[in-house]
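Sample intake sheet
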Amino acid sequence: MLREVIARAAKHERPLLVAIAQRDLAQLLSRRGDVTAAKELAQTARAALEQLGAKVEIAKVDAWLQERTIQRTNDLADSFLPPPAMIQTTPLRPPSPGP
């Protein structure tokens, strides 16, 4: 449906509506797991918003992109951590004094 909105808005020369619909579609694509396409579409939307001088909408896109970057970084960090069951819970003891 958002693709239809983008096509109709473009046909009727409504660049702000196109950019907002692109941003919304990027968010939807991201939720579906298509992160690369989502990022590209969000950047396209941001460029259009920049040309229009839509500062509030640019801030929304930037915040979303930053949030995705932070979340993606956290996802990657979590993938390198062992599962909780494998983490040793035995407290460390200082070395015993020598003879």
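Comment: The chain has one domain: 2-77. The chain has a mean pLDDT of 82.
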